[in-house]
């Protein structure tokens, strides 16, 4: 019973985080797609992140960072698909034993809001970068300030 309640709690947390990501991206200027012909049918990607090339690493500052290499479809999503992309990221690279628990200093997911902010920034202004790094140590500063910082707020 406890395991089932925990699973439900985790699902609700992921749904809320994904909805927040979609809201952040949707409230910005109209989303420009570089190539209309390459849009996924009905806006759905079978996979958003290339799992073979993505994963956690320690950056030059000694901080945990999540390197993401989006698929071609993942680079071309609009606001409605952002929650699905974030769900895939958390499901694939999350720490299930820590999700839903109070954050600890070593928790990779201690700043979900900031990581969603970085993700939506990459989708808006840096979708063509070969890889995207989501860094939990970077603060949440809002969409405009994150974009001004090139998706790397200090």
TrEMBL record:
* Pfam families on file: DUF2599
Q: What is this protein called?
A: DUF2599 domain-containing protein
């Amino acid at each position: 019973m406890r395991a089932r309640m925990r699973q439900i709690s985790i699902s609700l947390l992921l749904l809320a985080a994904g909805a927040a990501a979609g809201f952040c991206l949707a409230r910005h200027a109209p989303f420009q797609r570089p190539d209309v012909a390459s849009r996924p049918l009905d806006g759905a990607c079978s996979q958003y992140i290339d799992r073979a090339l993505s994963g956690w690493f320690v950056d030059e500052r000694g901080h945990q960072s999540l390197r993401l290499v989006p698929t071609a479809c993942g680079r071309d999503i609009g606001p409605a698909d952002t929650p699905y992309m974030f769900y895939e990221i958390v499901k694939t690279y999350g720490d299930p034993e820590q999700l839903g628990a109070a954050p600890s200093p070593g928790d990779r997911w201690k700043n979900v809001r900031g990581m969603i902010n970085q993700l939506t920034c990459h989708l808006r202004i840096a979708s063509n970068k070969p890889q995207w790094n989501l860094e939990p140590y970077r603060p949440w500063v809002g969409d405009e300030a994150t974009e001004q910082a090139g998706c790397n707020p200090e």
